[in-house]
Design goal:
This protein has one domain. It is built from 10 helices and 2 strands, in the order H-H-H-H-H-E-E-H-H-H-H-H. The protein has helices at 16-19, 22-38, 42-59, 63-68, 74-87, 103-128, 132-142, 153-183, 193-224, 243-265, and strands at 92-96, 99-102. The chain has a two-stranded antiparallel ribbon with strand order 1-2. Strand 1 (92-96) and strand 2 form a beta hairpin. Helix 7 (132-142) runs antiparallel to helix 8 (153-183) and helix 8 crosses helix 9. The radius of gyration is 22 Å and the shape is flat.
C-alpha cells in the first residue's frame, strides 16, 4: 500500500511534459484543479477527462503507474462517496433504517468520486514530470511578485519542494521500519481497521526520529556548501519559455474558456455545492 503512493515521486523519461518549463506545468495544474471545482455537468467532466488523458499521454508515464497511485486514496474515496450517497436529500431509491439512498445522492457521489480521482491524477502528473529543483525555481519565479510585499518567496518555494521530495523518502522509510518490526513478530495485517491503526502507532517514533535526522543532515549539508538562496543567486539552468510552453499556455486558456462556456450555456447542470 505504501509503495503505491506516487505523489512526490519523479519519473525520469524524455517527454514533452518533462521538457516543459515548470511554470507552465504549475499554471496548467492550477487551472485544472480550479476547473474541477467549477465543472457542473457531464460535458465539463468529459472535457476534463480528455485534458487529463492528453496530459498523461504527453508525459509518457505508464498508465498502470498512474492508476497505482489511486490505491492510497481508496479509504478517503469510500468515505466521501458514502457521505454523499446516504446523506443527500432527494428522491429515495431505497431505505434501510435511518440510511436512505437517493437519486440526487447517487449523482453527487459519482461526480465527487470522479473529481477526487481527477484531482489526484492531475496533481501527480506535476510531480512525476518535474524535479524538485525545477519545482523550486518554478514556484520562485511564479510567486516572485509576492516578494515585493515582504513574502520570503524563495524560502517558501524551497520548503514546499523539499516537503514534496520527502514524501517518497518517508514512505520508503516507513516500509523499511514495518518490515523490520514484522521480522520481530509485529502484526500489521490482521484485525479490523481500528486494530490496524493502533498497530501503526509504534511506527511513529522511529519514523519521526529518522525524519528529523534526515532534515538535520540536509540542513547541515546546505550550510556546509554555503547555500544562500533568494536575491542574487545564480542558476546553472535558468528558466526559459520555448515554443511548446507558449502552445501549452494557449491550450490551457482554451480549456478554461471551454469549461466556463459549458457551465454557462450547456444544459443538464449538476451543482456540487
Amino acid at each position: 500500500m505504501l509503495r503505491d503512493i506516487t505523489l512526490g515521486q519523479y519519473y525520469p523519461v524524455d517527454s514533452v511534459l518533462h521538457r516543459m518549463d515548470p511554470r507552465t506545468k504549475l499554471f496548467g495544474t492550477l487551472v485544472y484543479i480550479v476547473t474541477l471545482f467549477i465543472a457542473d455537468s457531464v460535458w465539463a467532466y468529459g472535457l476534463a477527462a480528455l485534458f487529463l488523458a492528453a496530459a498523461i499521454r504527453l508525459s509518457r508515464v505508464p498508465v498502470k503507474f498512474m492508476v497505482r497511485g489511486l490505491k492510497s486514496i481508496v479509504i478517503l474515496l469510500l468515505i466521501s462517496v458514502s457521505f454523499n450517497l446516504f446523506l443527500t436529500p432527494g428522491t429515495p431509491i431505497f431505505k434501510i433504517g435511518f440510511l436512505q439512498m437517493t437519486w440526487e445522492g447517487l449523482e453527487f457521489a459519482a461526480f465527487m468520486a470522479v473529481r477526487l480521482i481527477f484531482l489526484v491524477l492531475g496533481s501527480t502528473i506535476l510531480t512525476l514530470t518535474t524535479t524538485p529543483n525545477q519545482l523550486t525555481d518554478g514556484l520562485e519565479k511564479s510567486l516572485g511578485f509576492m516578494g515585493k510585499i515582504g513574502v520570503p518567496v524563495h524560502e517558501v518555494s524551497m520548503m514546499m519542494s523539499i516537503a514534496l521530495r520527502f514524501i517518497p523518502i518517508l514512505i520508503e522509510e516507513t516500509d523499511k521500519i514495518m518490515k523490520a518490526q514484522m521480522a520481530r513478530g509485529a502484526d500489521f495485517e490482521s484485525g479490523n481497521l481500528i486494530q490496524r491503526a493502533k498497530a501503526m502507532v509504534p511506527l511513529l517514533v522511529p519514523l519521526f526520529i529518522s525524519a528529523f535526522r534526515r532534515a538535520t543532515d540536509l540542513a547541515m549539508a546546505m550550510e556546509a556548501r554555503c547555500y544562500r538562496g533568494g536575491e542574487g543567486r545564480t542558476k546553472m539552468k535558468p528558466l526559459k519559455y520555448h515554443y511548446q510552453d507558449r502552445l501549452a499556455y494557449a491550450i490551457t486558456w482554451g480549456y478554461l474558456i471551454a469549461i466556463i462556456v459549458i457551465g454557462r450555456f450547456v444544459p443538464f447542470k449538476l451543482w456540487i455545492f
